[in-house]
Amino acid sequence: MNNAGLTSPSIWSRGMVAVIAAQFLSAFGDNALLFVTLAVLKAQFYPDWSQPVLQMVFVGAYILFAPFVGQIADSFSKGRVMMFANSLKLLGAASICLGVNPFIGYTLVGVGAAAYSPAKYGILGELTSGDKLVKANGLMESSTIAAILLGSVMGGILADLNLLLALGLCALVYAAAVVANLFIPKLDAARPGQSWRFGPMTRSFFCASRTLWRSDETRFSLMGTSLFWGAGVTLRFLLVLWVPQALGITDNATPTYLNAMVAIGIVVGAGAAAKLVTLDKVARCMPAGVLIGVAVAIFAVQQALLPAYGLLILIGVLGGFFVVPLNALLQERGKHTVGAGNAIAVQNLGENTAMLVMLGLYSLAVKAGAPVVGIGVGFGVLFALSIGGLWLWRRKQ
């Protein structure tokens, strides 16, 4: 089959719609399951510092399988890889539902997510091209964030009602994602015939890593997205402890509502980036990255719900505007050098290493008894300084 015949100039082609639908369902399940599993930990009296550890085992799967998932995405039809990955997520959710240790079940979901990510982003460059790739990324991010919005809220609400029902519905959503994957056109493998021996696979991955990290443009993208997603996942767990301490609210739903505000903002920011930023003007997104850190520091000292909602929406808008152009830049440059699947796998390694480090530091701070407000302010300031430093380095380049 010739992929050229399936590549469409429209971002609303049948294949693209199927990818977006599958991504929405898969991301919905991921976010609902996270908050339901956090409620399981609370119900089973796990300590507060174990909450970020749950995400760390998920992230660890990304890091462990990073040398292999890019080659898997490029060696098979990406739609079928996405279907297999969602099946693993389904198995992980079902195992938690059946009483398996939540850390084990969530690790299995992480393995599925690790395999899914290079395929879901890599397929965009096979279904569309050029500056429409930025728009396709905006659509993908908007779909993802809409799923975060709805999945997080539904996970929190259902966890307050009935944990077993909530877990069962998460498994059903993953099953629907598997079905949606069947409607993605079966594209040719991007790079078939690669060696499946452990040594050559790891060498190939680290060769791709060196290629991307040595290029000024792709190194800039990798550093920016790694900092962003490391900060984003830490903010999510910060909210879980911030809500009862700053607002005196102890339910499972309120932190999900606040996460939803970030999701709403990211949808808006991603749409703005698709209209205002092109691949040759990616640096336009950098001021938004600095302002994210400033807004997080201001948010941490709030003691009322209404200003917290407003600031989290603003953080989301800035985040969407910041990360979408960087993703598109990496996919476009990576497709022509190491393959889109390998490029996303390298990106995942960077992003998830950043997540692991930031979550580890956050967990240690919580275990040491540091006040959540102080953690939030320090976190925001450090993020703003990091992005500001990256921006200055880019300008010097």
From TrEMBL:
Keywords: Cell inner membrane, Cell membrane, Lipid transport, Membrane, Transmembrane, Transmembrane helix, Transport. InterPro entries: LysoPLipid__transptr_LplT, MFS, MFS_trans_sf. It is a multi-pass membrane protein. The keyword Membrane applies. It is found in: Cell membrane. Gene3D superfamilies: MFS general substrate transporter like domains (1.20.1250.20). The chain crosses the membrane at residues 20-41, 53-73, 93-117, 164-184, 220-244, 256-274, 286-305, 311-330, 342-362, 368-393. Belongs to the major facilitator superfamily. LplT (TC 2.A.1.42) family. NCBIfam families: PRK11195.1 (NF008397). Catalyzes the facilitated diffusion of 2-acyl-glycero-3-phosphoethanolamine (2-acyl-GPE) into the cell. This is Lysophospholipid transporter LplT. It comes from Siccibacter colletis.
